Amino acid sequence: MHPTDISRLVELLDEDITAFDCAQLCRGADGMAYCCKTQNFVPVLYREEQTYWNERGAHWQEYPVTVKEEAALSVGQVFCSCALSTCQRDLRSLSCRTYPLEPYFGYSGEFLGLTFLATASEVDRETGRLRCPLSRQYRSIRQQFINKTTLFFDQLLALRPEEKEAYLQSSRRHRKRHRECGIQIIVLRPDDAVLEKINL
Ligand code: SF4
Ligand code: SF4
Fold first, then answer.
1. Is the pTM of this model over 0.85?
2. pLDDT tens sequence across 148-162
Protein backbone atom coordinates (compact mmCIF):
# COMPACT_ATOMS: atom_id res chain seq x y z
CA MET A 1 0.00 0.00 0.00
CA HIS A 2 1.33 3.43 -0.93
CA PRO A 3 1.90 5.97 1.91
CA THR A 4 -0.67 8.33 0.35
CA ASP A 5 -3.27 5.53 0.53
CA ILE A 6 -2.40 4.98 4.18
CA SER A 7 -2.72 8.72 4.94
CA ARG A 8 -6.11 8.81 3.25
CA LEU A 9 -7.31 5.79 5.24
CA VAL A 10 -5.93 7.17 8.50
CA GLU A 11 -7.85 10.42 7.96
CA LEU A 12 -11.08 8.45 7.77
CA LEU A 13 -10.32 6.85 11.11
CA ASP A 14 -9.69 10.04 13.03
CA GLU A 15 -13.07 10.00 14.79
CA ASP A 16 -13.41 9.01 18.45
CA ILE A 17 -15.47 5.87 18.86
CA THR A 18 -17.49 7.28 21.78
CA ALA A 19 -18.09 10.72 23.26
CA PHE A 20 -16.24 9.58 26.41
CA ASP A 21 -13.07 7.56 27.01
CA CYS A 22 -14.41 4.02 26.57
CA ALA A 23 -11.41 2.60 28.43
CA GLN A 24 -13.33 3.69 31.55
CA LEU A 25 -15.49 0.63 30.87
CA CYS A 26 -12.72 -1.95 30.72
CA ARG A 27 -9.56 -0.55 32.29
CA GLY A 28 -7.79 -3.05 34.53
CA ALA A 29 -6.07 -2.41 37.85
CA ASP A 30 -2.90 -1.63 35.86
CA GLY A 31 -4.72 1.29 34.19
CA MET A 32 -4.57 -0.22 30.70
CA ALA A 33 -7.52 -0.61 28.36
CA TYR A 34 -8.51 -4.23 27.71
CA CYS A 35 -7.80 -4.03 23.98
CA CYS A 36 -4.34 -2.50 24.49
CA LYS A 37 -2.93 -5.61 26.17
CA THR A 38 -1.35 -8.06 23.78
CA GLN A 39 -2.76 -11.04 25.70
CA ASN A 40 -6.21 -9.76 24.64
CA PHE A 41 -5.71 -8.23 21.22
CA VAL A 42 -2.71 -8.00 18.90
CA PRO A 43 -3.11 -5.40 16.14
CA VAL A 44 -2.52 -6.49 12.55
CA LEU A 45 -0.61 -3.97 10.45
CA TYR A 46 0.34 -3.88 6.80
CA ARG A 47 4.13 -3.98 6.45
CA GLU A 48 4.06 -0.61 4.66
CA GLU A 49 1.89 0.72 7.46
CA GLN A 50 4.42 -0.41 10.08
CA THR A 51 7.09 1.59 8.23
CA TYR A 52 4.67 4.53 7.80
CA TRP A 53 4.04 4.83 11.55
CA ASN A 54 7.60 4.14 12.63
CA GLU A 55 8.88 6.89 10.31
CA ARG A 56 6.53 9.21 12.23
CA GLY A 57 7.85 8.28 15.67
CA ALA A 58 5.98 5.09 16.60
CA HIS A 59 7.69 1.86 17.67
CA TRP A 60 5.53 -0.82 16.14
CA GLN A 61 7.39 -4.11 16.45
CA GLU A 62 6.62 -7.50 15.02
CA TYR A 63 4.87 -9.67 17.60
CA PRO A 64 5.56 -13.42 17.73
CA VAL A 65 2.45 -15.53 17.05
CA THR A 66 1.70 -19.19 16.37
CA VAL A 67 1.94 -20.66 12.87
CA LYS A 68 -1.87 -21.01 12.86
CA GLU A 69 -2.38 -17.34 13.74
CA GLU A 70 0.11 -16.28 11.11
CA ALA A 71 -1.67 -18.40 8.49
CA ALA A 72 -4.84 -16.32 9.06
CA LEU A 73 -3.13 -13.15 7.82
CA SER A 74 -3.47 -11.75 4.33
CA VAL A 75 -0.36 -11.21 2.24
CA GLY A 76 1.64 -8.24 3.51
CA GLN A 77 0.15 -8.19 7.00
CA VAL A 78 2.00 -8.68 10.25
CA PHE A 79 1.02 -8.87 13.93
CA CYS A 80 2.59 -5.99 15.86
CA SER A 81 2.72 -4.50 19.33
CA CYS A 82 3.08 -0.79 20.00
CA ALA A 83 5.25 -1.15 23.12
CA LEU A 84 3.38 1.72 24.81
CA SER A 85 1.98 1.95 28.33
CA THR A 86 0.28 5.25 27.47
CA CYS A 87 -1.31 5.49 24.06
CA GLN A 88 -0.05 8.00 21.50
CA ARG A 89 -3.37 8.33 19.78
CA ASP A 90 -2.03 9.99 16.65
CA LEU A 91 0.22 6.95 16.06
CA ARG A 92 -2.44 4.27 16.46
CA SER A 93 -2.53 1.61 13.77
CA LEU A 94 -5.54 1.19 11.45
CA SER A 95 -6.30 -1.99 13.39
CA CYS A 96 -6.42 -0.10 16.73
CA ARG A 97 -8.68 2.51 15.15
CA THR A 98 -11.31 0.05 13.93
CA TYR A 99 -11.37 -2.22 17.01
CA PRO A 100 -13.84 -3.72 18.01
CA LEU A 101 -15.56 -3.64 14.60
CA GLU A 102 -15.28 -5.38 11.25
CA PRO A 103 -17.42 -5.30 8.07
CA TYR A 104 -20.51 -7.47 7.98
CA PHE A 105 -21.64 -9.04 4.70
CA GLY A 106 -25.13 -10.47 4.12
CA TYR A 107 -26.07 -13.78 2.47
CA SER A 108 -25.60 -12.38 -1.02
CA GLY A 109 -22.24 -10.87 -0.22
CA GLU A 110 -23.51 -7.31 0.16
CA PHE A 111 -21.75 -4.97 2.62
CA LEU A 112 -24.45 -4.24 5.22
CA GLY A 113 -22.49 -2.35 7.86
CA LEU A 114 -20.22 -3.04 10.81
CA THR A 115 -20.40 -5.76 13.41
CA PHE A 116 -18.37 -6.72 16.45
CA LEU A 117 -15.38 -9.02 16.15
CA ALA A 118 -16.36 -12.35 17.68
CA THR A 119 -13.41 -12.06 20.04
CA ALA A 120 -14.63 -8.65 21.27
CA SER A 121 -18.16 -9.77 22.09
CA GLU A 122 -17.22 -12.92 24.03
CA VAL A 123 -16.88 -13.21 27.77
CA ASP A 124 -13.29 -13.31 28.95
CA ARG A 125 -12.81 -16.58 30.80
CA GLU A 126 -10.32 -15.10 33.25
CA THR A 127 -12.33 -12.08 34.34
CA GLY A 128 -15.84 -13.36 33.60
CA ARG A 129 -16.53 -9.97 31.97
CA LEU A 130 -17.26 -9.03 28.40
CA ARG A 131 -14.04 -8.54 26.49
CA CYS A 132 -15.16 -5.23 24.98
CA PRO A 133 -18.07 -3.69 26.93
CA LEU A 134 -19.03 -1.64 23.86
CA SER A 135 -20.30 -4.83 22.25
CA ARG A 136 -23.19 -4.55 24.72
CA GLN A 137 -23.26 -0.75 24.92
CA TYR A 138 -23.20 -0.28 21.17
CA ARG A 139 -25.59 2.66 21.30
CA SER A 140 -22.71 4.67 22.78
CA ILE A 141 -20.79 4.37 19.51
CA ARG A 142 -20.88 7.67 17.68
CA GLN A 143 -22.71 7.73 14.35
CA GLN A 144 -19.90 9.73 12.77
CA PHE A 145 -17.47 6.96 13.77
CA ILE A 146 -19.74 4.36 12.15
CA ASN A 147 -20.05 6.45 8.98
CA LYS A 148 -16.32 7.02 8.58
CA THR A 149 -15.34 3.47 9.53
CA THR A 150 -17.79 2.06 7.00
CA LEU A 151 -16.25 4.31 4.36
CA PHE A 152 -12.81 3.18 5.50
CA PHE A 153 -13.61 -0.51 4.92
CA ASP A 154 -15.23 0.33 1.60
CA GLN A 155 -12.06 2.05 0.44
CA LEU A 156 -9.73 -0.53 1.97
CA LEU A 157 -11.49 -3.35 0.13
CA ALA A 158 -11.30 -1.37 -3.10
CA LEU A 159 -7.52 -1.23 -2.58
CA ARG A 160 -7.23 -4.83 -1.32
CA PRO A 161 -10.15 -6.86 -2.74
CA GLU A 162 -8.37 -10.09 -1.76
CA GLU A 163 -9.29 -9.40 1.88
CA LYS A 164 -13.03 -9.61 1.27
CA GLU A 165 -13.10 -13.41 1.45
CA ALA A 166 -11.87 -13.39 5.06
CA TYR A 167 -14.69 -11.01 6.04
CA LEU A 168 -17.26 -13.08 4.13
CA GLN A 169 -16.13 -16.14 6.08
CA SER A 170 -16.29 -14.22 9.34
CA SER A 171 -19.86 -13.07 8.56
CA ARG A 172 -20.82 -16.70 7.90
CA ARG A 173 -19.35 -17.66 11.28
CA HIS A 174 -21.41 -14.91 12.96
CA ARG A 175 -24.58 -16.40 11.41
CA LYS A 176 -23.57 -19.91 12.47
CA ARG A 177 -22.99 -18.74 16.06
CA HIS A 178 -26.38 -17.12 15.96
CA ARG A 179 -28.11 -20.24 14.67
CA GLU A 180 -26.35 -22.59 17.07
CA CYS A 181 -25.95 -20.47 20.21
CA GLY A 182 -28.50 -17.68 19.73
CA ILE A 183 -25.81 -14.99 19.83
CA GLN A 184 -27.34 -11.84 18.43
CA ILE A 185 -25.78 -10.25 15.38
CA ILE A 186 -25.65 -6.49 15.75
CA VAL A 187 -25.01 -4.49 12.61
CA LEU A 188 -24.20 -0.80 12.89
CA ARG A 189 -25.15 0.96 9.74
CA PRO A 190 -23.96 4.25 8.30
CA ASP A 191 -27.52 5.46 7.87
CA ASP A 192 -28.17 5.40 11.63
CA ALA A 193 -30.26 2.20 11.56
CA VAL A 194 -29.07 -0.53 13.89
CA LEU A 195 -30.08 -3.97 12.65
CA GLU A 196 -30.47 -6.64 15.29
CA LYS A 197 -31.98 -9.41 13.22
CA ILE A 198 -31.00 -12.93 12.45
CA ASN A 199 -31.76 -13.04 8.76
CA LEU A 200 -29.07 -10.57 7.73
S1 SF4 B 1 -12.83 -0.43 22.46
FE2 SF4 B 1 -13.71 -1.79 24.04
S3 SF4 B 1 -11.98 -2.89 24.94
FE4 SF4 B 1 -11.13 -1.13 23.82
S5 SF4 B 1 -10.98 0.55 25.33
FE6 SF4 B 1 -13.01 0.76 24.37
S7 SF4 B 1 -14.42 -0.42 25.68
FE8 SF4 B 1 -12.32 -1.06 26.20
S1 SF4 C 1 -1.38 2.28 19.84
FE2 SF4 C 1 -2.73 2.90 21.52
S3 SF4 C 1 -4.70 1.94 20.98
FE4 SF4 C 1 -3.13 0.85 19.81
S5 SF4 C 1 -2.50 -0.91 21.09
FE6 SF4 C 1 -1.08 0.80 21.50
S7 SF4 C 1 -1.91 1.79 23.33
FE8 SF4 C 1 -3.59 0.56 22.43
1. yes
2. 999 999 999 999 999
